[in-house]
Each structure stands twice: as structure tokens, then as C-alpha cells.
Amino acid sequence: MLRSPDGAIAATGGAYLGEVTNNVAEYQALLWGLRAARALGASSLVVKADSELVVKQLRGEYRVKNAGLKPLFVEAQGLLRTFERIEVTHVRREENVEADALANEAMDGRCTVGDAPEPPASVPHRSTLFD
To answer: How is the chain split into domains, by residue range?
Structure first.
């Protein structure tokens, strides 16, 4: 879920990924959000994720040891560098209810949910991504 600076929902999305680990799913959600933020023209971003592993890897506090996560991490790092300002924070799962609901809807329906972002008339300067 992507929110504009005023807190309004700018984009929502989720996709059924099949049988993957939770960490792969967290990275895929992050990548979706980063691409959506770029498509919407965001120049700075606050990423709020409930995956402590992903947050600590993105901050450089943990190394990425899992071979399956390395390409996702590299792609995320590349996208993060396209923003002027980025902040990555960990939130408790209870603070991420809307994003979890989208993920559950996609898993239950084995489908893609939400919307694809289109560039707005006015470009948001700061967005918040809930992963």
C-alpha cells in the first residue's frame, strides 16, 4: 500500500506468488511498492515494513546470505537509489493491517488485487510504503 504525503491511499496492490517463503513475499511486496512510488513520481519515500529481516538487510545491519533473496535485495537497492531521500523503518504487524489484508486477499483468491498506479497530475514529494 502506498500513501501520499497527506495520508491518502495512492495505490494498493498484492499478488498471489504461489509457494514462496515469507521473506521472498516481503521482498516482492517491497519491489511492487518501490515501482509504484517511482511510477507516481515520488522523490522521497518512507518504507514501513513488518519484516525485521528485510528492514535490517536494507539498512545494512544484516548481510543477505540466502541465494534466493540476493537478486531481490540487489533489485531493491537499485530502486532505492532512484529516490532523493529514503527512510526504512520497522513496524509491528498490528500497524500493517491494511497491507496484510491485501496480501491475504491475493493469497485467498490466488489472484492479483489492488490497482496499478498512474502518474498523478501533481507529483507527491513524499510517500509512505507499507510492506
So the answer is: 2-130
